[in-house]
Queue: 3 jobs
Job 1
Amino acid sequence: MLHPIESSATAAARRPAAQPDADDSPWHTSAACRSDEAGLFFAPSKEPTAARLSREEHAKRVCARCPVLLDCREHALAQPEPYGVWGGLTAAERRVVLTRRRRRDAEIRVPARIAG
Ligand code: SF4
């Protein structure tokens, strides 16, 4: 399997035309998953839960040795990418991170409004 960005037609289709093409970003060229062909990063249809958990753990092991893990993770959070393992996080884990960030940002804004 190629890097998720290269292999995901839906990800490319979701990318706004006015935005720079993420495939051109330098971090992408160093992805550890570029030559992986095991299909680890995206779920096949109707994948049983046990198989999904095993596949995701395997994908995360690839991510753990990836030199661009943080760039990939932030890209997936910023899009946000709704499917697949990106930057060592599953889609559900990314949703948790985004929820925590939104809460944190809201907490930061509240004192600013009180002070203002
Ligand atoms: S962090 Fe994982 S998904 Fe992202 S580029 Fe590296 S190996 Fe691929």
Job 2
Amino acid sequence: MSNFVNQIAFVTGAGSGIGRATALAFSRAGARVVVADINETNGQETTELIQQAGGDAFFVACDVAQPAQIEAAIQQTVAAYGRLDIGINNAGIGGRFGRLLDQTQEDFDQMMAVNVGSVFYGMQYQIRQMLTQDQPGDHPVRGKIVNVSSIAGVRGMPMGAPYSASKHAVLGLTKTVALEYAKQGIRVNAICPVYTHSTMVDDLINKAPGMEDRMRKMIPIGRFGEPDDIAQAILWLCADENAFCTGQAIQLDGGFTAG
Ligand SMILES: NC(=O)c1ccc[n+]([C@@H]2O[C@H](COP(=O)([O-])OP(=O)(O)OC[C@H]3O[C@@H](n4cnc5c(N)ncnc54)[C@H](O)[C@@H]3O)[C@@H](O)[C@H]2O)c1
């Protein structure tokens, strides 16, 4: 497993699902972790899980739809740990389940603020900090960012136009910012999971009888993803052994998009 000792990881949406699994995995690999979430109870629970296992973490309450709160969370990270090596922009919402004409302006605006604004402003504040940091020795990498998109970022998703649009936007941001900062030692990648067990996917499963079976049958490997499946790929993307990887969107989908 990669070694993240002496590295500081900031993870949004770390109170649940993929974000929690990622925060725990970074801690197991030696990083100090900032657990950011809008849900204080769940965020504190993730922090306690890390601390009980002997890791170093703290919780910061942060609504990623509010750029000022992201800025404050990054400032708290640096105040506590002195630097930022890894930014994981994971927090997101699934939005209303319905066709285009069922979606409201409020649905669309909220989706863009949470799922796209979080990545745009998250990267702004993360990269601004990373650029102030020395590259260790002649190490080519100054900072690593992973943005959590979705297979709905590479495919259409009927009944979820705002969600699919938001996850396509995450990939546009990832590729563009990777190009803009490649020479300054900042790697930016995205992960595109298929259906993965979490609160978000449970909500989708409960929309209609038989939904879970139908969703599972779409995945060639024959099962949903687990949060730790996604977390392990995020760690791989951030590993310093993986220094040549930037601007990529890894489809972690049990074969879904291969067909
Ligand atoms: N579960 C899946 O099948 C799946 C598939 C593809 C992509 N994703 C993406 O993975 C990411 C994580 O989702 P998950 O499946 O773990 O769901 P989840 O609902 O378990 O976790 C989402 C977390 O984000 C937090 N959050 C929501 N809005 C926030 C806000 N405004 N500010 C700060 N935190 C906020 C929630 O409190 C929660 O802890 C999302 O971006 C989601 O779109 C999930």
Job 3
Amino acid sequence: MDTAAFKTKVTDAFNGAAATYDRLGVEFFTPMGRRLVERTSPRPGERVLDIGCGRGATLLPAAGLIGPTGRALGIDIAPAMIDEARHEAARQGIDNVELQVMDGEHPDLPAGSFDLVLGSYSIIFLPQARAALARYAGLLADGGRIGFTSPVFTRDTFPFLPPMFTELIPLSLLRHLPESWHPEQLHRQLHSWLERPADLTAAMEQAGFTDVEIVDEPVSMSAVSGEAWVDWSHTQGMRLLWQHLPEDEAATLRSRLIGALDALRDGDGPVLIEVPVRYVTATAAR
Ligand SMILES: C[S@@+](CC[C@H](N)C(=O)[O-])C[C@H]1O[C@@H](n2cnc3c(N)ncnc32)[C@H](O)[C@@H]1O
């Protein structure tokens, strides 16, 4: 798949997901975004750029910390996500954010105009992410920082899902995904540089960063029920599988997942899943 077709697919998937993205009784992107913001410590008055801001899981907490003298810009390739972020900022009474539909791989923004670039679970969607990182280094003022998250990728797990799902989602179902979304292909195309900390550090340094820190830390994902998790899974990367599964196989997978996830609950309590997440932070080298 060429880059433009890939981006159209990603845009369509997130436009379709936007209305329910990060809702439906599952907590994942919000706690991860908050943690990324904690790790990058935005300060009052700083200028923040959030790449692939979605509904604002990192943008809005960062905007709170930079305060009225700071400026936060969220960009996303999916217009429906930008609309959702705008509503969410208004709902929370946050008025120091600006939102723009923009391809995060080629941000059309002035050099040296930000103190902090963020990207939670978004830089992983950029076909030429390493080239984009070099552009982000150029957008940062002296001493500027970057912080982003990614899954802790492994080749033998289902794309975007923690290892516990490897048992629950037969890898044979991958035949319904376009070939370019098979884990091996995805890996080769997009993610191989993220897998080994040494490669990732080298990529960051090559892109113009120093003081690279890579920390793997689980996010405690919580879902009010197995059904809530399955409904939520239609709003993230797994949407690509659901979209391509024939109806009967989708129904079988749905009931299998709901049964297995509900079995993890303590009575009426939530389903709790520890999801490994990689936090990468660095400073622009000058
Ligand atoms: C998994 S969501 C993460 C959203 C948000 N950062 C969060 O933590 O909830 C990935 C986001 O990246 C956006 N995205 C993917 N490719 C992009 C690109 N080339 N430029 C800008 N945004 C992109 C998607 O539209 C989507 O909103």
